[in-house]
Amino acid sequence: MYTTFKTNKKDSVLYVTFDFPPVNIQGVPMIADLNRLCDELENNREIKVVVFQSANPEIFIAHTDIDMLQNLSEEPVPMEQVKLSPLQMALNRIAKLPQATIAKIEGMARGGGHELALACDMRFAARGKAVFMQMEVGMGVLPCGGGSSRMARQTGLGKALEIILSAQDFGADEAEQFGTINRALDPYEITEYVDKLATRISKFPSASIENCKRMVYASIDMPIEDALLHEDYHLYQCTSQTSAVERFKQAAKTDFQDSLENQRNFEPLLMTMQNNEA
After folding, report:
1. pLDDT confidence of residue 73
2. How much is the pLDDT for 166?
3. Which of 109, 126, 130 is nearest to 118 (CA)?
4. Are 59 and 23 in contact (CB under 8 A)?
5. Integer angstrom CA distances of residue 103 from 96, 194, 252, 275
6. Domain spanning 5-202: which CATH class is it, in words?
7. Judging by beta carbons within 10 Å of its beta carbon (0-12, 13-18, 19+), is residue 172 exposed, middle or buried?
8. Is the C or the N end of the chain the one with fewer CB within 10 Å?
9. What share of the chain is helix, strand, coil (3-state, %, to 5)?
10. How far apart are CA 38 and CA 96, in angstroms?
11. In the beta sheet, which residues pair with residue 17?
12. Phi/psi at 230 (nearest 5 deg)?
């Protein structure tokens, strides 16, 4: 079904492994595959977590295919005539998926490859292997797959401009300091860490995962009063779609919250409450 990556489902986690020799270039075939993937996932409640990774030990995704950029208008286009590019639309669909999305980066992720990672909910990178760059300013343009729009939301204005305007490589530790990734990990530990995190998240109700995502993303641009109202809205979405109320009733019948021993062991106790519901 896909030509630029392979998929492998493990319980409620879907692994998407880019495998498009020689360098996982981000062109028309990959964008088409990403749209087909979104078609499969947007209404899928069985898959709860999606992990993006690469079969190439040196490259996550190289960058956007320059063949897609050679026919850009050499005249300025009025704002009212501007439309989202195919890459922007595909990566925005990735960002809006109901599943939790994780980028596991163990190689080069420049330009559009970095922008795909930024469109994911979480990013983890391997020290000594991951390489990031936004090179667009040196090509006479700007990051236009969401990089200019998402970067500052992750890093703040000054760091975003340093990354974009310097157009230089940076590794996993520096990415962690910038805030473009969640965590830099040693190569021997990244797979285990991501797998454990993905598996843990996949134990929770899909509606709860989705509404947590929707609320956190929406809150970025809202005044606090509006954000609090939206919290209540998403709370009721959860209680209407999951077994939350029943869980609270069961907990109330026990010493779930009043037991000091339970408080000492709250994390494993929480996981025993999960029943892998969709």
Report:
1. 65
2. 96
3. 109
4. yes
5. 15, 9, 38, 26
6. alpha beta
7. buried
8. N
9. 50, 15, 35
10. 9
11. 6, 53
12. -65, -30
Q: Which two tokens stand for residue 44?
A: 């899928």
CA 144 and chain centroid, separation: 18
Look-up of token digits 């910038």:
178
Burial class of 179 by CB neighbour count within 10 A (0 to 12, 13 to 18, 19+): middle
CB 277 within 8 A of CB 207: no
Q: What is the dihedral of CA 136, 85, 107, 53, to 10 degrees?
A: 170
Q: Count the neighbouring beta carbons within 10 Å of the beta carbon of residue 174.
A: 16
Residuewise pLDDT in 10s, the chain (278 residues): 899 999 999 999 999 999 999 999 999 999 999 999 999 999 999 999 999 999 999 999 998 888 877 667 677 778 887 788 899 999 999 999 999 999 999 999 999 999 999 999 999 999 999 999 999 999 888 898 888 889 999 999 999 999 999 999 999 999 999 999 999 999 999 999 999 999 999 999 999 999 999 999 988 888 888 888 888 889 888 888 888 888 888 888 778 888 888 888 888 888 888 876 66
- List the alpha helices (DSSP H) in 108-223: 112-119, 147-155, 157-166, 172-178, 187-202, 206-219
Q: Which of these, 134, 126, 192, lies nearest to 159 by C-alpha position?
A: 134
Sign, CA dihedral 238-241-244-246, equals positive
Residue 23, judged by CB atoms within 10 A of its CB (0-12, 13-18, 19+), counts as: middle
- Angle of helix 112-119 relative to helix 86-95, nearest 10 degrees, comes to 30
Which residue's entry shows tokens 């919290």? 231
Peptide bond just before 143 cis, omega within 30 deg? no
